[in-house]
Amino acid sequence: MDEEVQGEASLATPLDKLAKIYIKMRDKRDALRREYESTDGAIKEQMEILEASMLDACKEMKADSVKTKEGTIIRSIKTRYWTNDWDSMYKFIKEHDAFGMLEKRIAQTNTKNFLEENPGILPMGLNLDSEYTVTVRRPKGN
After folding, report:
1. How far is it, in rounded angstroms, from Cα 58 to Cα 66?
2. Distance of CA 112 to CAs 109, 117, 121, 132, Å?
């Protein structure tokens, strides 16, 4: 934590001062994130150019790997799967008992909405964790 914050923030600190410090810290994080994303984006673009050159070289050499004194370049195939027809996909998965094709995670917003709309229904094995959070908004005009 910033020295200013450590010295200033305590339970005895007025809430307006805590809000001011919080907003200042959030702004600093946003600035750092923007700086990082800008720099990272530029480096990523340069790396993509190099990757394309290395892929072309591997293709030309008909090689899946090339060992150099600076490192080994490996060409591999990356495959992604997706669907534009979820109804058919669900039907297929159910018909073939292929539920392993799905990832195990719960859609947070959809689950919240379902439980709000069906207060008497709770799926077996569903866990939930609620905690208080704080949101700080700037005063109007700033």
Report:
1. 7
2. 5, 9, 12, 16
Distance, CA of 52 to CA of 58 (rounded, Å): 10
Q: How many CB atoms neighbour CB 75 within 10 A? A: 15
pLDDT tens for residues 27-79? 999 999 999 999 999 999 999 999 999 999 999 999 999 999 999 999 999 99
pTM of the model: 0.65
Instruction: In whole angstroms, give the CA distance from residue 137 to residue 10.
Output: 20
Kindly report the backbone phi and psi dihedral angles of residue 52, in degrees, each rounded to the nearest multiple of 5, phi listed first: -60, -40
- Contact between 26 and 136 (Cβ < 8 Å): yes
| Tally of domains within the chain | 1
The 10s digit of each residue's pLDDT in 105-128 is 999 999 999 999 999 999 899 999
Mean per-residue pLDDT, 1-26: 79
Residue 38's identity, in one-letter code, is: S
CB atoms within 10 A of CB 24: 13
Using only C-alpha atoms, the chain has a radius of gyration, in whole angstroms, of 26
Domain that holds residue 18: 3-117
CB hemisphere CA count around 48 (13 angstroms): 6
